[in-house]
Amino acid sequence: MTESKLRELYEQNLRQMDNLTEKQQNILKAALSLFAEQGFDATSSSQIAKRAGVAVGSVYQHFHNKRELLMAVLTPLTKSVFSQAADQFIDKTLDKDYNSLEQFIRALVADRMLFISNNREEFKIMLGQLLSDNQLGPELNHAFNEQPKTTAFPIIDRLKKKKLIIDYPNDVIVQFVFGPLVTFFGKIILAIKPMPIDQEINYAVGLIVNGLTPRSN
To answer: Within a 10 A sphere around the Cβ of 166, how many other Cβ atoms?
Structure first.
């Protein structure tokens, strides 16, 4: 399965929401695009209306203020889109049998770094809202921590049986693997220019594989 960009999944979900009119869908899509491009505070209702092809009054006819509009934009992301993205990640990357530690780590790291890079603007919106409202935390934790972690554990157990990975608790191994991904995410969000993506992946894979390879006595 090819993993979709968050924006594509978002628009698919909007079309499936029976409680939204076409005009409301257009407003939400326009708001997401503008919030991603220039930030929540810098986006005006007139810009959203123009992008959506509606009158300015229509924006707040459906959403009482910009904060309510932001929550309406984010709800499909947290309730459906991120979980679907996590499911695609599991189908594409984790639901396989890997014959070496490096093969597993490279597939995982490359997939997640590319996913972060391709969806950086949506992640910026989410991070900004998380800092001011922790209601979104549980949904994101399930989609991007608990759900993939549970699926990764059987792969780690198989690598342990083959003595291809260090015999540490699975939680510790997952934390170690995701360390470089968190660092890369921080670079993207803070607009710190990363290295070319291939170099980022190669260095991260090298560090992780070196740290998790069993040492002979």
So the answer is: 16
Reading the block at residue 156, the tokens are 């780690």
pTM (2 d.p.): 0.69
Domains of the chain: 6-212 (1.10.357.10)
**Beta carbons of 13 and 81 less than 8 angstroms apart:** yes
- Do residues 108 and 209 make contact, with C-beta atoms less than 8 angstroms apart? no
Phi, psi at 167, each rounded to 5°:
-85, 65
Read off the tokens for 180: 């470089």
Round to whole Å and give the CA distance between 119 and 122: 6
* Among 84, 119, 114, 110, residue whose Cα is nearest residue 1: 84
* pLDDT per residue as tens digits for the range 21-48: 888 889 998 988 888 788 788 889 899 9
